[in-house]
Specification:
It is a single chain. The chain is an alpha+beta fold. It has four domains: 55 residues; 55 residues, no CATH class; 101 residues, Phosphorylase Kinase, domain 1; 177 residues, Aminoglycoside 3'-phosphotransferase, Chain: A, domain 2. It has 15 helices and 13 strands. Strands 5-6-7-9-8 form a five-stranded antiparallel beta sheet. A two-stranded antiparallel sheet has the order 1-2. Strand 5 and strand 6 form a beta hairpin. The N and C termini lie far apart (51 Å).
């Protein structure tokens, strides 16, 4: 579609909405004109056109005295913000006093209420990982949350003070855990993953300025979205004057993903989002990307539209839930999207039996199969991190797929196997097997057990640490039985050989 055609269609859509007495919004214009919402955001002329029509409609229907009401509301908000800042200072003073008292052990159900400053302590790191709270107008730094495990005491040198329940592989922390370092045992099988600690509770002012420039509207609220382990994602409320929209901002800490160029990752993700959205898949549409972080305070960022729905790990209809997941996987594998080559797992050459394994012979059998020549797979476009944490749902219907950063051209069976591993980890091998049957029915072919084993053996003890972060309190997590469930899946897969 040429630029004049887009402008004409947007102009017509605005006129039709105004004539019908409907709000002139980016979402409404995009739907009526058949133009992507991100396309409207990215083109200043289209943004200006919509803003002009919106002002005309708003001006025609503005009730008398509305401007005075808005001014009064702003004054009230400023007063509330001042009180919040005053209370923050009081809390800081109280915490300075309490820090001089002997530290007590905190139980797993104790409600933590502490200021979030820039100090490098493990408590702040965990709170950042697990908290999902709206930030008030004054951008207060105090966050309240319940922790799913006892918060360890921290020594002056930054090391974790041992307490009951924190020893060995079952404890949630390492002895020398530092903010921004890996949550797990040295030598675990997922060296790419690290805990993200941006030392911020919100996007920086520079990042918000960049968002406002590319979106052409003011950011009035933000909320950190939970579940991510490799990036920080915020939901941003954008004020266009007469209405508000919601966008999603994703940022990376440079170097937080070992052996991965985050700038290239952002560029690839933006390109992939364009392609999959144009292919008709339910994916976010990119609005802007700052791959090197120059405009976003040194943190590579991508701004995108928000999809409806949220992750669902407690489905009311498990069979329907699994059928929709299988159908979406087959749909992704059917689209024609150009993408880079499949990269092997960096730990595949030297597999390690998890320390929590109860059936080591099963792992040895799986590794023995993987040492054989890999079957030549039929390659296609794959998501590469296809699993329930990256799927959005509304009223039992799958509405979107997110986190396309590692998408590539590779074996479809890897996508299926990776999803099956995540199902076994959280629910059990029977859920994974039901997904296999559903996917094979959708795809019209059987999943190769070799690629199944390749995907499932990516499991390590570290999964017992980051899966609760991804679940983010949405469902109970049986970490003690996690490895056994994976071994059940390995046995079932070996039985298909």
């Amino acid at each position: 579609m040429t630029s004049p055609e887009r402008t004409a269609r947007a102009e017509q859509a605005c006129a039709e909405l105004a004539a019908a007495g409907q709000p002139v919004t980016f979402t409404a214009v995009a739907g009526r004109a058949g133009i992507g919402r991100a396309t409207l955001y990215r083109h200043p002329a289209l943004r200006a056109l919509i803003d002009s029509h919106r002002r005309d409609v708003a001006g025609a229907g503005t009730p008398p005295g509305l401007a005075d009401d808005i001014a009064a509301l702003r004054t009230a908000i400023e007063a509330v913000a001042a009180r919040v800042r005053h209370h923050e200072e009081q809390i800081r003073q109280l915490n300075r006093k309490s820090s001089k008292q002997p530290e007590r052990s905190r139980g797993s159900n104790e409600l933590i209420n502490r200021p979030m400053d820039n100090s490098n302590d493990i408590g702040r790191l965990i709170l950042l990982q697990l908290t999902d709270r709206s930030i008030p107008v004054a951008r207060a730094r105090t966050i309240r949350t319940r922790l799913p495990f006892p918060l360890p005491a921290v020594n002056v040198d930054g090391t974790v003070r041992r307490s009951a329940g924190s020893k060995g592989a079952d404890g949630p922390f390492n002895d020398q855990l530092e903010p921004g370092k890996r949550l797990g045992l040295p030598g675990a099988a997922m060296p790419r993953w690290q805990a993200v600690d941006f030392r911020r509770r919100r996007p920086s002012s520079q990042t918000l300025d960049w968002v406002e420039r590319v979106a052409g509207a003011r950011v009035v609220a933000w909320r950190r979205m939970t579940g991510g382990i490799a990036s920080v994602v915020h939901r941003l409320t954008i004020d266009h004057g007469s209405y508000r929209d919601v966008l999603v901002l994703r940022q990376y800490e440079p170097g937080v993903l070992a052996l991965i160029d985050t700038a290239a990752l952002v560029r690839d993700e933006a390109a992939t989002l364009h392609a999959v959205h144009d292919a008709g898949l339910p994916a976010p549409e990119p609005i802007a990307a700052d791959a090197d972080g120059r405009e976003s305070d040194g943190h590579p960022a991508i701004l995108m539209t928000r999809l409806p729905g949220r992750p669902d790990v407690t489905p009311a209809d498990p069979e329907g839930w699994l059928r929709q997941i299988a159908a979406m996987a087959a749909r992704i594998h059917d689209v024609q999207v150009a993408a880079g080559p499949f990269e092997e797992r960096i730990d595949a050459a030297t597999p390690v039996i998890p320390a929590s394994a109860t059936r080591p012979a099963v792992w040895e059998a799986a590794f023995g199969i993987l040492r054989q020549q890999a079957p030549e797979p039929a390659t296609c476009f794959i998501h590469r991190d296809f699993q329930h944490f990256n799927l959005l749902w509304r009223r039992g219907r799958l509405t979107g797929v997110v986190d396309w950063a590692r998408s590539c051209t590779g074996p479809a069976d890897f996508d299926a196997g990776h999803c099956r591993l995540n199902l076994a980890v959280l629910f059990g091998a029977d859920w994974a097997e039901r997904l296999r049957l559903a996917y094979e029915a959708e795809a019209g072919r059987a999943i190769d057990p070799w690629w199944d084993l390749y995907a499932v053996t990516a499991y390590s003890d570290e999964w017992r640490r980051f899966i609760p972060v991804q679940v983010a309190g949405r469902a109970p997590v049986d970490t003690a039985g996690m490895t056994s469930r994976v071994e059940d899946l390995l046995e079932a897969t070996l039985g298909r050989l």
